[in-house]
Design a protein that fits this description.
By secondary structure, the chain is α+β, with helices and mostly antiparallel strands. It has 14 helices and 9 strands. 51% of the residues lie in helices and 17% in strands. The strands form 2 sheets. It has a 7-stranded mixed β-sheet. 22% of the residues are buried.
């Protein structure tokens, strides 16, 4: 057990597998003890069929196994003479499986084993400090709501986002500002006149008019950019525009950090309301804007062919 002491909870899968292997080995011995000719892996199917006939799909749904897994178990049990197949009474296109006479006899014989195993587990539960059964139910609920890999991805994103620094625009970042934007625009759409104005002349088109450009550095390299364009509009003060993140830097929270930094900058500049335009096909971007607090508004005039959604944010 030194290995698990060293690795800690990150080796939970290996440790649970070790415990499962131990319990499964003991389970095989318990069947032998009661002279029950079953394999531990057959038990869920055997138990379900003890209460009636079912299709393989129905069994899979009840025990939480895949259809191929149940089919394999049914085939193994059929070879041992424990299962018989027949047509569904109401739908002749469906096959149903049921326990054979031999298996029915086992289902009566196994009742004493059920009683003793249940009692034994209760003894173990009383001797333990924690309720394993309830803990398993809690973990199943939590992992059903969000998978372990999703939990890990969130932690990865949080850790890597700490390496991100948001800095003001400098001339040395002009190429990155253009390249990152041109990369995503040409991947999904085409460059338009308004794109060339902003990307080729960021100082004249954005900075000199009271706007800002923010650059996200990941390990000191430009990985994302975002512009805050000063608007000459009676309703909006700034437009959130030209947000782009390098494909190699996806999953590091860069879009979120750029968006938050832009909102804070707009507030610091006295802005009361922000505006943005996007395209609904860019689902990750739209989800980000909603997460930042933007709300969809009725369409306004736009210089972009690709823009089919407008959003606003009260600052």
């Amino acid at each position: 057990m030194d290995f698990y002491t060293q690795t800690g909870i990150m080796a939970i899968g290996s440790r649970l597998r070790l415990l499962t292997d131990k319990i499964t080995t003991d389970a095989a011995g318990i069947y032998t003890l009661y002279n029950i000719n079953l394999q531990p892996k057959w038990f869920p199917v055997f138990y379900v069929l003890s209460n009636g006939n079912h299709t393989i799909t129905e069994i899979a749904q009840q025990i939480g196994h895949s259809h191929p897994s149940v089919s394999k178990i049914v085939a193994e049990m059929s070879k041992k003479g424990l299962i018989k197949e027949g047509k569904h009474k109401e739908d002749g296109r469906k096959n149903v499986v049921s326990l054979s006479k031999k298996a029915r006899e086992l289902s009566e014989k196994i009742k004493d084993q059920y009683t003793d195993v249940t009692a034994a587990i209760e003894v173990i539960s009383k001797e333990s400090k924690h309720d394993l059964w309830k803990a398993i139910e809690e973990w199943e609920f939590l992992l059903g709501r969000k998978s372990l890999i999703q939990y890990v991805q969130e932690q990865k994103k949080q850790r890597e986002s700490k390496k991100v620094k948001i800095v003001p625009f400098k001339p040395i970042y002009a190429d990155a500002f253009r390249q990152l934007n041109e990369e995503w625009i040409t991947r999904y759409f085409k460059m338009e006149e308004a794109d060339y104005k902003a990307l080729d002349h960021p100082r004249e088109y954005i900075l000199d008019k009271g706007g800002e450009i923010l650059v996200a550095l990941y390990e000191d390299r430009p990985a994302g950019v975002c512009a805050l364009i000063k608007m000459n509009d009676p309703e909006y003060d700034f437009e959130l525009a030209k947000m782009a993140v390098s494909p190699q830097a996806q999953g590091k929270n860069i879009g979120w950090l750029l968006g938050q930094a832009s909102i804070e900058k707009a507030r610091a500049l006295g802005g009361k309301k922000m505006y943005l335009e996007s395209n609904t096909s860019l689902k990750p971007a739209i989800n980000l804007y909603y997460k930042l607090g933007f709300k969809k508004i009725a369409g306004r005039a736009t210089p972009y062919e690709r823009a089919n959604i407008q959003m606003e944010l009260e600052l």
